[in-house]
Queue: 4 jobs
Job 1
Amino acid sequence: MQGIQRPTEQIYSNYTAEDFDVWRTLYDRQMGNLTDHVSQAYMDALSEVKFNRDEIPHFGTVNEILGDITGWSLKVVPNISPQKDFFELLARKRFTATCWLRTMAQLDYLEEPDMFHDVFGHVPLLSNQAYCDFFKGISDIALEHLDDQRAIELLGRIYWFTIEFGLIRENGDTKIYGAGIISSAGETKNCLLPETERLDFDVRTVFETDYRTDIIQERYYVIDSFNQLYDSLPEVKSVLEEILAED
């Protein structure tokens, strides 16, 4: 992927017929995979941001919608942002998102996150206030430790097992809310298999759990609500400081 020049702003007229085909194909496939398995909170959020199969989301419109609901907005980036930029923008309620789409030949696997992951996976729940409060809270903690790589690594585990690969209980069933699952057919199928390890969300246990980005996940953590995540922030901060003091 190195050497490919990615757009730094969304110019809607630049989207090709293939781009619309990719969005439509991925949207249809994932909506089929997610039926009965995704959080109702995500489905409600999908309606809030007015995503549909036939239209690649227009960032200007999305920003207007999110701005009215939670005050968040999207910031176009060409690829994964440096940690400092990422957390500083999140603390200002700005989510970094790419605006380019994978090709039809890359439907099943892409080394770097594209717009389908960033936007379909992450953006709808930016209309959920409790989710956003947790998101910003993690970013505020990260800002206090930007020069400490160990702290950022540990906070990355909290982010990974919640925002990216989190599961949630709804009406007695385990449902999906993590963007990395929502945007991936493989993760969607894997996370709810009977043999897949699912544990109750616990701050210290998550801090002790490493992860890999290049494989289907082997463990997932389940929350009871987004309010539980938000309420865990003081513990995240205190346990992080304990671990750093012990290192």
Job 2
Amino acid sequence: MQKTVLSERPDWRAKAEEVGFTFADMHGEPYWDESSAYGFSLREIEHDIEDPATELHAMCREVAADAIKDEETLNQLGIPEEFRDLVAESWRASDPEVYGRFDLAYDGSGPAKLLEYNADTPTSLYESAAFQWEWLEDQIAAGVLAEGDDQFNGIHEALVERFRHLFQPGQDLHFTAIGGAPEDYATVESMGWAAREAGLGAHYTDLEKIAVSDEGQFLDDQDRVIGVLFKLYPWEDLFRDDYARHLKTANCLLLEPAWKALLSNKGLLPLLWRKFEGHPNLLPAFFESDVAEAMAGTGAARDPALFERSRDMLIHGHVSKPLFSREGASIAIVEDGQVTDTSPDDTYAEHPRILQAYCPLPVFDGFRPVIGAWMVGEACVGMGVREDRGRITQDLSRFKPHYIRD
């Protein structure tokens, strides 16, 4: 793994504008940044990222199967009681999943460490699946990259095959996101693009324009009944939305499915550690409520033996994360009992927390990269890289293209 300074394509901004990549710059800062790129060997990709991510996903499914049977776990995950049957039924019915993204800390030497799983509404899909692939092809054609260079990027093709596998030709799918959010729309349109290529109908409606019929079904902005809906709207918000009371009558398959609520919050991390303690791709993690007294030396942990085996690492450095958080909001790094770094955004501060052992990100030219390993179905099919100057990756981090060279 290395970071290499490269010539930018002279026309990349025009190309971005042409395809609607309107958020290549945000808040006066570059978001897409091709002034340099991250290079990997094929072994690093296959051995350290692709295979571990696929294995982590299988482990997450095992955790989900356990969680739906245990009320205490559902409490810790913040699943509202009135929707627990919906979540369990979704799992038992094998409601299909489409995609997700593991965020990994990786420095080229391995093993990659799981920071979190964006199992429900991950964004940066368009940049990962499409725009960085166009960058690779252009840079090879320009001689900036070598003819044999490649990229870990089968995301779009995998999405096409996933939709083709799940639905009959010509079936109508609906896609929704909050209106006026270009990054969200790019993710949803990437999904719609794949669905159309799979021979399906793909209709977009702003989230706030979805209506409810007299029979309790969801309607799009042209009053068509929605039978399948990909929603870029997290389950933890939907559960608390007025629309939630119609979920049982809507007769609508939602993507991602309701059981993904078990995996799309950071309570997944302590559940993984509890079940797979010592796995090379995991960091020690605990629900704060289970270890707060033990960390303070005033009482015992819920699982004393499990905690004691990780105590020194947690005391030396851990990250405090709310169950629900986006873009690094309300996250704090604590080292030797002192808060040494916090996110300026405290949007999610009221939520219960988990503690995860701190794994410093590598530093390349003053930036700290995070690997986003993309899952489609149950396989890892590609990746994107985001980097930040700070130790907490936030909403102004930069997306960096990558290439493979052996």
Job 3
Amino acid sequence: MSFAEVKGRIHSFESFGTLDGPGIRFVVFLQGCFLRCKYCHNPDSWAINGGTEMSVGEIVAKIESCRNFLRNGGVTLSGGEPLLQSEFTHALIEECHKANFHVAIDTAGSVPLEKSKKVLDSADLILLDIKSLDNELCKNLTAFGNENELATLDYCESINRDVWIRHVLVPEFTLQKERLEELAEFLSHYSCVKRIDLLPLHKMGEYKWRELGLHDELANINEPTAAEIEMAEKIIRSYRK
């Protein structure tokens, strides 16, 4: 079977993404995720057998139709968790490369390396979501520990793969001075980390939790204030070389 024939499950597409890697991106949201992040704005992407089945060839054809907008950008494979469908994601990367598209992977690194290495090896850029360095807090926020995401970061360092870190600022959880200082100091030792993006908690996905009948544990948590965001950004900047 050729790469173009490989099939996977897709949640949705965004044809003009500006927040998911360098330049303008065509974003492919893959279906399926084991994590249960309390702040997830796409809980409808969790179900492994949800979404729509499509072939790599069908997806690349959709991307090609937007090529003129992507000259200084490329393709970002997001989710859900793209590493969960590792064979499909790898095939999609290879076909995108044949078409001369830059490919980024937006991942929580939650999949063991024995399954994800092939994808990490082939992608041009990894957007890695670090939930928390505190393993117990990570379990509280996502229902899983942080072992795989930190192993993913270490592997990217070992293969010299560029990484952009993403970290969600959740008041009363991750938006704490001591935790941010610990994270900034930890990341300062990685040469592969080229950028750190702090993502303030937002409530745009709350309606999906209601529609799916899910209990929203952060319903009473407010979005970060401008002052809180500035405090967090100042801490990160102070540790960046």
Job 4
Amino acid sequence: MKEKRIVEFQNKLLNWFYQDQRNLPWRQSSDPYLIWISEAMLQQTQVNTVIPYYQRFVHEFPVVRALAEADLEKVLKMWEGLGYYSRARNLHKAAKMIVHDFEGKIPSDYEMIRKLPGVGDYISAAVLSIAFQKPFAVVDGNVKRVLARLYCLDRPVNDTQNKKVFQDKAFCLLNLEKPGDHNQAMMELGALVCKPKKPDCEGCAVQEFCCALKAGEVLNFPRQLIKAQTPLYHIAVGVVYKDDKMLITKRKEEGLLGGLWEFPGGKRNPGESAEDGCIREIKEETGLEVSVIKPLKTIRHAYTHFRILMDVFICKYISGEVCLRGPVDYRWITREEIPDYPFPKSNHKFMGLL
């Protein structure tokens, strides 16, 4: 696209954005802290899901120091149900780093902000452009789709080898005078107009610049690499009662669902029944002998790279002292105490039956 056409594209895009953009809570402020929180939440999560979490989170932690001084378990509780919990752990670590190393201020320099845990190219570009008007182009899934259609790019969007191709195209279109608004407009265009399956090409303010539309191949872009089938794991979990209390264990902070509490259990062995797997896993994780009283529910749940089929059982404590192998902490709690602890979404799917 020639320079004159790029300027025309930028102007039409911004005019559309200023008129039709959604009224989102994080757009009411230029505070880099609030923008950082919103962008961390928006990674791999839909806007409508994020809004109530964002509002509760910034009400609880209105400034970076409040987040830095908070207990991690409280941060995870505020994040509970939003998924991808490493984002919450990284926000907490980064907040501490900002307070200790950057005098409580979000860095406005690219090299400095990239040092923060969990801050990659996307969040860096978003915060620096929206909060500080620095000329960095944001490239997320929505922007990639827009670029692929604008330029008829044959490069698969889910191939990391093509990252620079999309980044370069995004920068070529970037409005250097209003980079923050431009980036938000590109993301908004992908979210509201240039949708994956039902794009509103007739209502698109920049349709005249679209190569895919001219070629009649909008739905053929963006290209995708075919993903391998997502593996399915069979899990057995037990709600272990000892008198009127239930046993919960805490996962180590690193890794999947780090720092969350859960009812004990794990993967079943090949050929092992769900009941036997539940008893064995609880024994291995906690050292306790239990018996299965009855099945509670079978849960299906999907993570990014795998799925689980989880059989949940009501169990009774028989004997033994808790000796943890894997988990880092445990509690015997009443049903009324469940809301005090952050749990994975898969556990919430059966809690209502307890």
